[in-house]
Amino acid sequence: MRLVIIGAGFAGMYAALSAARLRDIKGASPDQLEIALVAPQPTLVVRPRLYEPRPETLTAPLLDVLKAVDVVYVQGAAETVDTKAREVGIATPGGKRTKLSYDRLVVATGSRLFRPNIPGLAEHGFSVDSLDDAIALDRHLQHLVSWPISDMRDTVVVAGGGFTGIEAATEMPARLRESLGRDARPRIIIVERNKAIAPDMGEAARPVIADALKQVGVETRLGVGVASLDKSGVTLSDGERIETATVIWAAGIRAAPLTAQIPGERDNFGRLLVDRDLRVPGVACVFATGDAARAACDDAGNYALMSCQHATRMGAFAGNNAAAELLGVPTRPYHQKAYVTCLDLGEAGALFTRGWERKVEMVGDQAKKTKREINTVWIYPPLAERAAALASADPERVTDL
Asked: Which segments of the protein form a coiled coil according to its record (predicted)?
């Protein structure tokens, strides 16, 4: 029997570890149940940190961890899924194409930044969505020191006032000063179509964020969007023109395109609707998890967000349940009642909230200490030691905050 997992992000990694854990508990051998993880590289990109400088350092190797738990790594990009033949089509690094059959499939393909067809966005916009995108932005910021001193050079526009946009914007004054030196006069502007900054963070958290933006000198333009970009600036939907060399697009994400090949129902973000065991209803032998799935967290109407906090736990349940079906043991319904947010606010510290109502628990330096611990310890892969790696993937304990 073979369980195939597509994706080496947080959900894919924990799906592989959790499936291997259940296989170990039930005394099955890798020959009896092969677990294969398909990804272009055996590397976890620490995506929640890509707003930080030096993004090329923000990865973690997975090969030794996978080997320690007898998970087969298949290098290549999954291009097709045939749910009738139960095959995944893979493009290998050498340019060849091959097929991998499965008895159960876990789709953990993550999400991609949504880039609308705005004039100039593709040519002149930056982002922190992928490792390559973040590296391109970092190099651009480093190169700005060679430009003549001007308002255009020192101005950054961030399109999107959600979680990613706020973290990118509040980090930017320090990054510009590091890149440009004492001559820097950073001006950072967040453009948000909603009437309020951080529209999803709630009434209690929003004043804290507003104070932090003021403290670090970030301006906002609310109720407007980006109409067009060119090499020297951006024009907003209300006609305002801002001269800038740097526009960072952070306005929404969608499930990765491969999910469209699964003949299941999807939501407005392209996520596959799944049942409580994370199966795709009506599609035999297929599970979806992480940003590829719309899953209920509880019985109160809360659904998993497109975040690594939800992806890690969802991945653990999906891997466990896919393996459970093959091993003939009961599945474990996914649930995730605990929910926290920890928003980096640059030199103003951070904001830590708990619960779906986003009750503020920590702010400033205290929250920043927690954010650093999350970013540098909690979200990284476990040690490449068999017992520790398997123990880390207990579905009931992953991200138990």
From this structure: none
